[in-house]
Amino acid sequence: VKLYMYQVARSLAYIHQLGICHRDIKPQNLLCDPNTHVVKLCDFGSAKMLVKGETNIAYICSRYYRAPELIFGATGYSTAIDTWSHGCVFAELLLGQPLFPGESNVDQLVEIIKVVGTPTKEEIQSMNQNYTEFKFPQIK
Asked: 23 and which of 31, 46, 56, 84 could share a cystine (Cβ 3.0–4.6 Å)?
């Protein structure tokens, strides 16, 4: 698992250095050769060159691997969304099942909160200012 995730991290570091965000990191987009243990990142159909200040679509990335800021509808996100997805894939490889198996966007957010805790008002505001007055379950 360590070797595979290291290769994915290197792939992400390379494309992020070029300003490209993959925006759909998930197990199905990782090609693994069982003989050589080489991992290739594939399916760049959702990938985009991120430009600071430019609005992006929020509904991107497969649900189980979607970063919280995307669930909150953020459009000014960074390559950090790929890093979140990378962590979700890592957890899935260790657990043998998705870490956050939400059945909808709201359920997905609840699954994340159950594991990492309730976001602070400041964290919510940084993701989307329209959600600052919403009440979220207080889970630590």
From this structure: 46
User: Which sequence spans correspond to the domains of the chain?
Assistant: 2-129
Span 48-93, pLDDT tens digits: 999 988 999 989 999 999 999 999 888 999 999 999 999 999 999 9
Return the CATH fold of 2-129: Transferase(Phosphotransferase); domain 1 (1.10.510)
69 alpha-carbon distance from chain centroid: 9
> What six digits make up the tokens of 100?
């956050």
Going by C-alpha positions, the residue among 132, 66, 123 that lies closest to residue 99 is: 66
- 24 in catalytic set: yes
Q: Could you please report the per-residue DSSP string of 55-115?
A: ---SS-S-GGG--HHHHTT-SS--THHHHHHHHHHHHHHHHSS-SS--SSHHHHHHHHHHH
Token pair recorded at residue 59: 């509904």
**For 1-53, what is each residue's pLDDT tens digit?**
999 999 999 999 999 999 999 999 999 999 999 999 999 999 999 999 999 88
Model pTM? 0.90
